[in-house]
Amino acid sequence: MMEMDGQQSAHGESYAYTSPYWAEFYDMWVEEIIGSAALTKDDDFFFNLLSPFLPNSTRVRGPLRVVDMATGTGRVIRGILQKMNSRAQGELPGDIQKELEIWGIDHSQAMINRAKGLLEDKMKPSTTIVWRTSAAANFVDENPELRNAVDLLIFAAGSIGHLTAHGERRKFLQQVVKALRITNPPQTPRSIAAISILKPDDGLQENCSEQHVAGKEVRFNAEMRKPSRQWPHLEYCKSETMTLKDKGILVNSFDLKIVETATGKLLSQEKYSWSLQVFSQTEWERELSDCGLSISQKVETGSETWYILHLANKKSLV
Ligand SMILES: C[S@@+](CC[C@H](N)C(=O)[O-])C[C@H]1O[C@@H](n2cnc3c(N)ncnc32)[C@H](O)[C@@H]1O
What we know:
Elements: H1 6-11, H2 20-34, H3 36-50, E1 64-69, H4 75-88, H5 94-98, E2 100-106, H6 109-120, E3 128-133, H7 139-142, E4 152-155, H8 168-179, E5 192-198, E6 217-220, E7 224-227, E8 234-238, E9 241-246, E10 249-260, E11 266-277, H9 281-291, E12 293-300, E13 304-311
Parallel strand pairs: 1-2, 1-4, 2-3, 4-5
Antiparallel strand pairs: 5-13, 6-9, 7-8, 8-10, 9-10, 10-11, 12-13
The chain binds S-adenosylmethionine.
S-adenosylmethionine binds at residues 5, 7, 17, 70-72, 75-76, 106-108, 111, 135-136, 156-157, 159, 162-163.
Protein name: Methyltransferase domain-containing protein
InterPro entries: SAM-dependent_MTases_sf
């Protein structure tokens, strides 16, 4: 099957998310930039997206199915499970947990491996997590079990900006329309896709569009040094990020050094990159409507604008 994947074709082996070192450093970097208080608020937000579906324990059409698109190191899934577990002490009937199936999908095997490692010891036998390495633009075609079978899809951290190939975002939205379960409100809650766009001055993906002049490099984030937990004898040193704007695409690149802590010896130094599409609200809302998705709500959180989407009446548009 032909895959459409802007990051893999633009960056190849230097694409940051293919590196197991970056996979570990990513979590430290996010915590530093976003802050642990804001990350905890995100967990509440993710759980609140799920809660309307929870009282519906008598399901006729299989489990309550959640897709975490571009799951990365599984931050969204960990947030949901932590909240589920704390509520489960009191309020949630056990059969609801058994019926919950969460899919973590990402095109990077390195990120999925880390997500699995972080989640394995937290999982209860009642939780089903399905991991898949698939590109966003093909995720239903590659996993046909998801067709008309997803109650909630979450695409966090503005990662939709990574769909930079021509037509890639539209192709992803068409997959979302195939995935969302056709429901019968008010008996069953309407299936939803929650997709976030980063606010322009967010630090996470150096997405400061106004500050960029075509062809001119801009520097973001100071150098960051952190010890590895996975490889305790090593430490990371990330350089500041260089950002170059070219035809509506921001290309971010940086060096990641791996240093032996005891001796200070430099073991490796790689240049990594990714790219992001500069967001245009008009274009985005036109694509949503062309693909058959309606906006139920827009929600502002700390650094993201969330679009809560449902199927427009005529699903046949795709
Ligand atoms: C900024 S991280 C977000 C990770 C996680 N969702 C979070 O909130 O922390 C971006 C993720 O998007 C993934 N990604 C980028 N483009 C993708 C694509 N076309 N298909 C699937 N995953 C993609 C990357 O591999 C990476 O794990």
